[in-house]
What we know:
Blueprint: H1 2-30, H2 37-55, H3 59-87, H4 92-114, E1 131-133, E2 136-138, H5 140-162, H6 164-174, H7 176-181, H8 186-211, H9 218-233, H10 238-259, H11 264-278
Antiparallel strand pairs: 1-2
Amino acid sequence: MITQILLNGLISGSQYALVGVGFALVYFVTHAFHFAHGAILVVGAYGAYMAHALIGWGLIPAAIAGVMIAGGTGCLVDYGIYRPLRRRGSPAVVMLLASLGAYIFLQNAVSLGFGDNVRTLRQASTTVAGLEVLGARITESQLLGLTLSILVLGALMHLLRSTKLGRAVRAVAANPVLAEVSGIDSQRTILLVVALASALAGLAGVAVGLDIDISPAMGLRLLMMGVVAFVVGGTGSISGVAAGALFLGLLQHVGAWLLGSQWQDVIAFFLLLVVLVVRPSGLLGRRFSWR
């Protein structure tokens, strides 16, 4: 029983980590809350559903298509909405309202195109008991989503710490004006970061679709869990956000076992309140770090 609970928490935490890390990346380079991130997640999930269930592509090509569609949507949001606002020097509240407007537009566009009914991305073969791991059960689709999440987050950490793009992103996050003086195109770097973060959101949407079902309204809860992970783990550390997401997922499932599944979201926001009061910098809070 405990092993199953921990495994379920790890699966949920990996999904939260993708959302939270993507949200954190955009915040670090723009200092704005990118709430449209939740709707981009939905776009990625439905892009994979369209490719898999409607066009007939295999699950892996469909997942790649969903991730690419999410990344492209994020680029459109940044290029068409955020960039003009940044150039005008718009205050944070305007950026926040713009992100909320983009979220509402994208979610309703998905509802208009696919309806509000719940859809399934899982293959029929996932209805069997699944694989046994240390006494716990995990479906092949859940294992695929978990594995992809771990591999992608590991590759992202390497990219940010050890590549030229990572150095450019760190420079823009620290000081975009000095980055421009150093020859770095800040707007292009921000666009690349938004594309990368949106691809992470798309992968999270696909992972959720492989775990449960998808709907146009699914993005809000996942976004909120990602934001909680962002604050709980530490707003100055990418690895802290990932760790906070895993801790949140585990805590929710242990709490659901003890109290009932209806308490999962209450547990998440109670944790958020405790961290904000006791340790506002987060459990692993520090000065900004890509570790």
